[in-house]
From TrEMBL:
Gene3D superfamilies: 3.30.450.40, Winged helix-like DNA-binding domain superfamily/Winged helix DNA-binding domain. InterPro entries: GAF-like_dom_sf, HTH_MetabolicPath_Reg, Tscrpt_reg_IclR_C, Tscrpt_reg_IclR_N, WH-like_DNA-bd_sf, WH_DNA-bd_sf. It comes from Streptomyces lavendulae subsp. lavendulae. The gene is kdgR2. Keywords: DNA-binding, Transcription, Transcription regulation. The keyword Transcription regulation applies. GO terms for biological process: negative regulation of DNA-templated transcription. This is Transcriptional regulator KdgR. GO terms for molecular function: DNA binding; DNA-binding transcription factor activity.
């Protein structure tokens, strides 16, 4: 016996409405949106009004077109995809070199978002995933980006409050500021069991002579300053290699900055499809 398909959720209806704008016409009327999306007229009208209020769409008379929020996120998704493609082979090389779990992360407000995860011997013990979020202040990747980012970024993190995740989490503003200053001095950030008990991490920022746009990190369950010091040169070299892959040597060479102190060997070298595809970047771990 045939069963009727389950009704679409509100999110699925909104995705269908946004999908109507994938054609060559930049502006669509309500009638055209209904025809392309298959969503009933009354529902489509309510969803369109909500999307306009949220800046996903703009309204011009009786027509609708993509709004600034859609364009902003589309550009950001395109940038993240380019970053991930450039970094992926180098992240694999870093994993092969260290045998440890490797992450590529970006800063989003007061949190870091994992764009890529290359599993290693510690993969089952570190509860991270692609799209997962963590507080920036308790992670090496977050501290690497904050140390070489805008001062406003640090103030935003502090305004959200520093809550302990383990007994070793830095929860006093002066302690975090001092750690970020030390990170700028050595070019490497460390997480000394500040996010998860038994897990330490070293991270290096992706940057030329300006602000960091992301960070590469390696996690280990072996712990200890000696292990972090062993991993630091390889992490820093990988971050530099990813930057060169993205922008070439010329961009950094025009305004050179002091390199991290890491004499170790170098590591061998469409915009958003729909709203659903972007939701994974807003999920909590």
């Amino acid at each position: 016996m045939d069963t009727e398909p389950a009704p679409l959720s509100l999110l699925e209806k909104a995705a269908h409405v946004l999908g109507a704008f994938e054609g060559p016409e930049p502006r669509l009327s309500l009638t055209e949106v209904v025809r392309r999306s298959g969503i009933p007229r009354s529902s489509a009208h309510r969803i369109l009004d909500q999307l306009v209020r949220l800046r996903w769409l703009d309204r011009e008379g009786r027509d609708y077109r993509m709004g600034m929020r859609m364009l902003e996120l589309g550009a950001l998704a395109s940038h993240h995809n380019r970053l991930r493609r450039a970094a992926l082979p180098l992240l694999h090389a870093l994993h092969e070199q260290t045998g440890q779990l490797v992450h590529l992360s970006v800063l989003d407000g007061a949190e870091v978002v994992c764009l890529e995860r290359i599993g290693g011997s510690e993969a089952t013990t570190v509860p991270s995933r692609v799209g997962g979020r963590m507080p920036a202040y308790s992670t090496a990747a977050g501290k690497a980006i904050l140390a070489f980012g805008s001062p406003d970024g640090v103030e935003h993190v502090l305004a959200q409050g520093l809550r302990p995740r383990t007994a070793r989490t830095l929860v006093r503003p002066y302690a975090l500021r001092a750690e970020l200053a030390a990170t700028r001095e050595r070019g490497i950030a460390f997480d000394r069991e500040e996010s998860f008990r038994g897990v330490s991490c070293a991270a290096a920022p992706l940057r030329g002579s300006g602000r960091a746009i992301a960070a590469v990190s390696v996690s280990t369950c072996r712990g200890g300053e000696r292990e972090l010091a062993r991993l630091a040169p390889a992490v820093a070299a990988c971050a530099r290699a990813v930057w060169r892959e993205l922008y070439g040597a010329g961009r950094a060479a025009r305004r050179p900055s002091a390199p991290p102190r890491d004499p170790g060997p170098a590591v061998p070298a469409r915009a958003m499809d729909n709203m659903l595809g972007w939701l994974r970047f807003s999920e909590w771990m």
